[in-house]
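Inverse folding, one chain.
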């Protein structure tokens, strides 16, 4: 398979994803020669398929592969934790976030996600501390937090209606 054919194949898979035809997208991905299945592009498509299918934990393991291949990318590392959060593996998400480099863990998205995980785990003190740190880095997160179900224990279910 040439690079042009691979690009065309990837665009076809993306098209099926756009249409919500996950099985067709997956079948096209599986039809790739094995040398192309481990490319960044193919892994990203596989993650997209798993995510659209609601298989967040499976997607997180694929995202972990991408993250480990690019350890300088905060975005890729954060994607792993976010997928684990979406999959209900809050402890796994916190552990992944804790394994990140110190500078990365001080970003607003990372702190906010950590607060969400602690909230879902019922760890209120850790949640409040992480949320406070996230607000210190990005004050605009305060409004987002009001509507976030992970923080109902702090703001209540109808906090956004009171403001």
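Residues assigned per position:
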């Amino acid at each position: 398979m040439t690079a042009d054919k691979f690009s065309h194949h990837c665009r076809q898979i993306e098209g099926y994803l756009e249409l919500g035809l996950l099985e067709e997208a997956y079948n096209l991905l599986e039809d790739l020669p094995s040398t192309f299945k481990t490319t960044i592009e193919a892994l990203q498509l596989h993650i997209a398929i798993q995510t659209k299918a609601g298989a967040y934990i499976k997607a997180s393991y694929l995202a972990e592969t991408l993250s480990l291949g690019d350890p300088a990318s905060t975005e890729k590392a954060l994607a792993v934790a976010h997928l684990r959060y979406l999959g209900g593996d809050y402890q796994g998400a916190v552990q992944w976030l804790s394994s990140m480099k110190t500078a990365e863990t001080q970003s607003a998205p990372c702190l906010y996600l950590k607060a969400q995980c602690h909230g879902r785990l019922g760890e209120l003190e850790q949640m409040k501390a992480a949320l406070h740190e996230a607000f210190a880095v990005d004050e605009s997160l305060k409004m987002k937090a009001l509507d976030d179900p992970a923080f109902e224990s702090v703001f209540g279910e109808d906090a956004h209606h009171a403001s």
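DSSP finds 13 helices and no strands in the chain. Residues 15 and 25 are 8 Å apart (CA to CA).
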